[in-house]
Specification:
about 15% strand; globular; about 450 residues; disordered C terminus; N-(1-d-carboxylethyl)-l-norvaline Dehydrogenase, domain 2; binds nicotinamide-adenine-dinucleotide; Rossmann fold
């Protein structure tokens, strides 16, 4: 099939590359000429394992091209995917400006029947607005449908998630739209396909993300209780997660959820519930619990250091999770300014996402970007872990300890166990595993 894709960010680029990999002819359009120029040269604009190789191969094979010209993505295409951003507005609603702009762009360029497919995560009933917008601008003769095919890929494993999905949701209100999407997916995927209405598909995506967020906040509440009872939350999570009704994933206690999707999709769903007169109390509680996680981490840091001012603090992890360079909704965006305001001297390291933080907080006398975790740790009074990179899990603890001025680790992602850290000679604070801290009488205050 010939496919046009609008938006080549984290979701759109993976969608474009993977659909080309499946043999389709893909023209991907982005309004950012720098992104288009970089991608056209075969260079990925995002850090996503497995993506660079597929990008180059499919450009070479002539199945994938990038452009700033919308008409090139629309002309002759069977399906147009909308993959533009839907960031949160200040009131929590989804900002649909980019989606509306695509609808306005498509309308005058229609050259025969088109299936316009929402892949962006949008509030229920957004498709109606897209449809009305195109109809108003394209006129009554224009032939098109608007369908929903939400994307469930996760950054860090996006290529695998796209090519080996656990399910595909197709929301279509016409037989023609449904058949086109089935023709696109059925030959390549043997996972369950949920065929439903457009509005249901839109709601499935928001519901999925709200449920995942709720699962994380739930285990985080339990982790606080575990800490006070001297119980290890990881064992509790395993004990409940083996029940197939619960499932073991998304039960990692720690700093909670971040990123560009879960927080914004949860707040957008809260607004949808409120606008429709439905109780959103539970969803708001999930949000409140999540915001409190970073405060808990910072209070542990204060407990450990007593006075933060003038202390050297190593921050490991800028990305919102491992294997991505995405910092949207990352805890680093709260922790770094908080530590700077508290007068700490920061040494920050992340394997992939540092440049993005550097653009927001350029280096200065109190903020240094290190080339490795060990360089960040050198001379530090405390080390704070914010991201679950494997590189941090496999740190040489003996070396790390020898580099630090005082071996204090505040582990926001529970990468280590208290026993292991105690054996390695660290003062160790976790979120739900228990702490290894000296009593106040013997506590060593950093020079
Ligand atoms: N990031 C993820 O892991 C993920 C997963 C599933 C779903 N989604 C959803 O997919 C959507 C996109 O997310 P993202 O993370 O890829 O966003 P993003 O901000 O990384 O990418 C959006 C891209 O769209 C481009 N764009 C904006 N307006 C345009 C226009 N009129 N024409 C052409 N290009 C335009 C921007 O330049 C940008 O490159 C969101 O709704 C998101 O919720 C994202």
């Amino acid at each position: 099939m010939r496919l046009g894709i609008f938006g080549t960010g984290y979701a759109g680029l993976v969608t474009s590359v993977c659909l080309a990999e499946l043999g389709h002819t893909v023209t991907a359009v982005d309004k950012d000429p720098d992104i288009v120029a970089t991608l056209s040269q075969g260079q990925s604009t995002i850090h996503e394992p497995g993506l660079p190789e597929l990008l180059v191969n499919n450009i070479k094979a002539g199945r994938l091209k990038f452009t700033t010209r919308s008409e090139d993505a629309i002309a002759g295409s069977d399906i147009i995917f909308v993959c533009v951003g839907t960031p949160p507005r200040s009131d929590g609603r989804a900002d649909l400006c980019q989606v509306e702009e695509v609808a306005r762009t498509i309308a005058p360029l229609l050259d025969g029947y088109k299936l316009v497919v929402e892949k962006s995560t949008v509030p229920a009933r957004t498709a109606r607005w897209i449809s009305w917008t195109i109809r108003r601008l394209a006129g009554p003769e224009a032939e098109f449908d608007v369908a929903s095919n939400p994307e469930f890929l996760r950054e860090g494993t996006a290529v695998r998630d796209f090519l080996q999905p656990d399910r595909i949701v197709i929301g279509a209100d016409s037989g023609r739209a449904r058949s086109l999407l089935l023709d696109l997916y059925r030959p390549n995927f043997d996972c369950p396909i949920v065929l439903t209405s457009v509005t249901t598909a839109e709601l499935i995506k928001q519901t999925a993300n709200a449920f995942l967020a709720a699962k994380i906040s739930f285990i985080n509440v339990m982790s606080d209780l575990c800490e006070t009872l001297g119980v290890d939350v990881a064992t509790v999570a395993r004990g409940i997660g083996l029940d197939p009704r619960i499932g073991g994933q998304f039960l990692n206690a720690g700093l909670g959820f971040g990123g560009s999707c879960l927080p914004k999709d949860l707040s957008a769903l809260i607004k949808v519930a409120e606008e429709n007169g439905v109780d959103s109390g539970m969803l708001k509680e999930v949000q409140r619990i999540n915001s409190a996680r970073v405060e808990r981490l910072l209070s542990k840091l204060e407990t450990a250091l007593w006075v933060v001012r003038h202390k050297v603090v190593a921050v490991l992890g800028v990305a919102f999770k491992a294997n991505t360079d995405d910092i949207r909704g990352a805890t680093s965006l709260t922790v770094v300014p908080w530590l700077r305001a508290a007068g700490a001297n920061l040494r920050v390291y992340d394997p992939a996402a540092m440049q993005k933080l550097e653009a927001l907080y350029p280096p200065d006398d109190h903020l240094m970007y290190a080339q490795s975790a060990c360089e960040a740790a050198r001379g530090a009074h405390a080390l704070v872990i914010l991201t679950d990179w494997d590189e941090f899990r496999s740190l040489d603890l003996e070396r790390l300890r020898s580099l630090m001025r005082t071996p204090i680790v505040i582990d926001g992602r529970n990468l280590f166990t208290p026993a292991k850290m105690q054996a390695a000679g660290f003062e160790y604070y976790s979120l739900g595993h228990g702490d290894v801290a000296p009593s106040v009488e013997t506590q060593r205050i950093a020079p």
